Target: Probable translation initiation factor IF-2
Amino acid sequence: MSKADASLVDYRPPITVVVGHVDVGKTLLLDKIRGTFVAYREPGMITQHIGLSFIPWGAVEKIADPLLAKFKLKGRVWIRGFLMVDTPGHAAFSNLRRRGGSVADLAVLVIDITRGFEEQTYESLTLIRSRNIPFVVAANKLDRIYGWEPNENAPFLESYDKQREDVQGRVEEAIARIIEEFNKLGMDADRYDRVRDFNAQVPIVPTSAVTGEGLADLLVVLAGLSQRFNREKLRVTYGPGKGVVMEIREEKGWGVTGDVVLYDGVIRKGDVVVTAGLEGPVSTRVKMLVLPKPLNEMRDPEDRYMFMDEVRAAVGVKIIADGLDQVVPGAPIFVVPQGASLDEYMKLVKEEVSEVRIETDKEGVVAKADTLGTLEAMVIYLRSQGIPVRKADVGNVSRRDVVEASIVKKKNPLYGVILAFNVKVPHDIEIEAMQYGVRIFRNEILYRLVEEFTQWYKEQKTKLIEMELDKYIRPGKIRILPGYVFRRSNPVIVGVAVLEGVIKPGYTLMRGDGKKVGTIMQIQDKGKNIQEARKGMEVAISIEGNVMIGRQIKEGDELYIDVPEEHAITLMTQFKDQLTEDEMALLKEILRIKRSSK
Ligand code: GDP
Model:
């Protein structure tokens, strides 16, 4: 086809991404799938992409035949294969973004069957769900189940039937544990062949990236999911290309290039494209479009690439053009059709990017991430946790970030912080942040990063409230312990039990009839001066004032802290969450005493 024709439509293979905790076997699983299925060639399909691998459905059918019959999918699968994203993990998935959604159509969440849910499992799940795409669980390392007898590349169900009963039992237990974790999260899951409703239950496929068992099942379930959910989503036109920049990299002889996943339309050599950089939209002209050569056409390692005049969605393609060094991964990229307004496309890109890069004067945190995709995932996550964001941007932590955070800190010390996700903090910036007292939180795992911050937030908040509370005289009630009068006057020194609330040096004591007794000078516990004594403690106190034991007060008397009325009212209204019910009751009693003694 020489000319783009927007009226033609086609369906692209679903773009499929693999996510999960570190070391669960994501990389090996992808390698095994590629090794097992990519060798089959399909006429008319590009088999080699940049950053993606095409898994032809025909190849899957060869080993999945019994499964297809069992699940009544034989001859009914209309997708022509899958485009597996070569780089597994959170970052790649995050960058496969488009306005309001995902460029990835399907996800495989890999869990180590012998370990079950791990930290990043939750994070991957959050990410998948925030993008709202269908997914399947690969319960990997099946071959590690004690006693498992491998059957190379066999479907799981076939191999499972050949196992001893006790081995089957262990597999079931492991699956049950995974199901239980999903249940705890309010989701339903089951071994894939027992799933009754794919809209409501997460299918779990046991796999081994080492023996290849379960890979057929995995791809059949993915096909099943695309049959159900994806047909319209997979529609591609042959209009102007739309894609996302997955990666920006320097290539010898070519300069800075962009690896792009084109999810719709056509892109041609010479096309004007618009994408996004940190300084704003970038427009440039495509100089070259590069694809890897099919393996069997590669004569020597130097001869790895082929240069295309045009490519059609869906495709992973390397673009060579000027100005790409400015571009951020995760940025949209659009072909500007001839005759269309460049300004309009610039505006479009700008709008899309400004949805992710936030700049406000709100009291909130400063969020930094390495790519537009990870930043978006971060902002979505922060919002879901109710954490306000003042600024969200791509790139290393900068002086401006520190200044922004310090401005917030003046108004609200708890939000005057920087959360750095997968980005660097240059040494001088770190020192500057210390000078401003701005805290920088860093972690490579998003939910850990946010957890560290929220933990700190809670601690600081408690401290701040304590500091605030300290400005007010708090209620307390004591009894003078009989037999513990150490000095009768000037000052009185007695042993007391704190019956309720708290007492501190400087607090004034009064009797049950409202008459003032004197001021607490010192509190001692086992001979040591202390700054407060709480309910349940027995301590010695000295009381200064015109007071004598046997006159104004005597052993066994109960005394109250004389809480000024304004303090009592503030405590009862603004700090009611910090007071116990007993302290509230005591405050009321103190107020009543004071009012009736006036
Ligand atoms: P990733 O961090 O999730 O990409 O994990 P890798 O693919 O790098 O695998 C981590 C380790 O687990 C490697 O040593 C793999 O060889 C091993 N591994 C991965 N999948 C399997 C599997 O299915 N069975 C067994 N026995 N080992 C596996």
